[in-house]
Write a structure and sequence with these properties.
By secondary structure, the protein is mainly alpha-helical. 84% of the residues lie in helices and 2% in strands. Helix 3 runs parallel beside helix 10, helix 4 packs parallel to helix 9 and helix 4 packs antiparallel against helix 12.
């Protein structure tokens, strides 16, 4: 490890923070100018842009026959996005959740997470699986833009209306467009610097490809989402903060994993360990989002702390498994975490059903 590795890591972090600020600021202004809700911008431009590092790393790993890194990158990033990023963002400021997310986008995130389990059950995400995922990503994006213009739900219409069109001059539009592209470039460049240095260190320590993908690469490629969502949370743009995470997770599976499956010569290998643990965790985390987002249509600080606690538990499990796969501590974590998670899902689902019945009773 040299001083240049540390310098690259620090400089990458600086680029990430600056790029996130530029991206959120310009995207918010352009969304208002175009009459588009920041939620849609968060689900498309911001989400796709901040997922660009995942795409670059996974494609490179797939073409270099390091598909374990590609799979671990996507699965680990999706877990990190929900538990770490939404957790920290909600701790900073409770996040309001748009109705469209609850009704459409979070269920889609759950569905595509289940597709990874389905496609990877035979031990591989092949080229045909990748094509299906890619087509799904294109269709989702087009539907999202189409749906935003034809929305009939009065609650969602009100959410769009409060971000009514604001007039900007052509010069201001051009400047904000350049700022948005510059922010994306800073995010991508900064994350790449950080990833390269982190992977170098992890490789020297003898970690496996899957472990590197699930931890170092996943956290590194999720830093743009982390920086963007925290910045959006501080600026009060909760639609971008939450939409960025949900959109990034959908994009990671449909486009990043899909394209990797298409370009990888042997497809993306899915190890038994990923099927047995990591992919089910990703699916459970996606499912956890729905009741948490539904309760009060916001993610409270308490729920943010719960998400962050789960992430610490998950990373602790990975670290313990890497050092001693047969440790009894791993069994104790599983025996406690799994029942608690199931109980939490039941309680949150009961709360959601109770809220829906109460709302229906008031309306009638």
């Amino acid at each position: 490890m040299t001083i240049w590795t540390v310098a690259a890591l620090i400089f990458g972090l600086v680029l990430l923070v600056g790029g996130a600020e530029a991206l959120v600021k310009s995207a918010s202004k352009l969304a208002a100018t175009a009459g588009i809700s920041p939620l849609v911008i968060g689900l498309t431009v911001v989400a796709f842009g901040t997922s660009a590092p995942e795409l670059a790393v996974s494609l490179q790993a797939g073409m270099s026959n390091q598909a374990d890194i590609a799979l671990g990158n996507v699965v680990g990033s999706n877990i990190c996005n929900v538990l770490l990023i939404l957790g920290i963002s909600a701790l900073i400021m409770p996040l309001a959740v748009a109705q469209q997310l609850i009704r459409l986008d979070v269920p889609i995130m759950i569905g595509v997470s289940g597709l990874v389990m389905l496609f990877g059950w035979d031990g591989q995400i092949g080229r045909s699986d990748g094509v299906i995922l890619c087509l799904g990503g294109i269709g989702y994006t087009l539907f999202l833009l189409y749906q935003s213009r034809l929305e009939k739900d009065p609650i969602v219409q009100d959410e769009y209306a409060q971000f009514g069109t604001r007039s900007l001059s052509l010069k201001e539009i051009g400047l904000n467009g350049a700022l948005l592209l510059g922010g994306l470039a800073m995010l991508i460049g900064g994350s790449q610097l950080l990833i390269n240095s982190a992977v170098t260190i992890a490789t020297l320590l003898g970690a496996s490809q899957l472990m590197i993908g699930l931890t170092v690469v996943a956290i590194g490629t999720s830093l743009p989402e982390l920086a963007t969502s925290i910045t959006a949370s501080i600026r009060g743009e909760s639609d971008i903060a939450v939409g960025n995470v949900v959109g990034s997770n959908i994009f990671n599976i449909l486009i990043v994993l899909g394209l990797t499956g298409v370009v990888s010569p042997a497809g993306v290998a899915v190890p038994p360990a990923a099927i047995a643990f990591d992919i089910p965790v990703m699916l459970a985390v996606a499912m956890l989002c729905l009741p948490i987002c539904f309760t009060g249509s916001k993610i409270s600080r308490r729920e943010g702390g719960l998400l962050l606690g789960y992430y610490l538990l998950y990373t602790g499990y990975l670290a313990a498994h890497a050092t001693n796969p047969n440790s009894l501590w791993l069994e104790k974590i599983s025996m406690v975490a799994v029942p608690l998670t199931l109980l939490l899902l039941v309680l949150l689902s009961w709360h959601v059903r109770k809220s829906m019945l109460l709302t229906h009773h008031r309306q009638s």
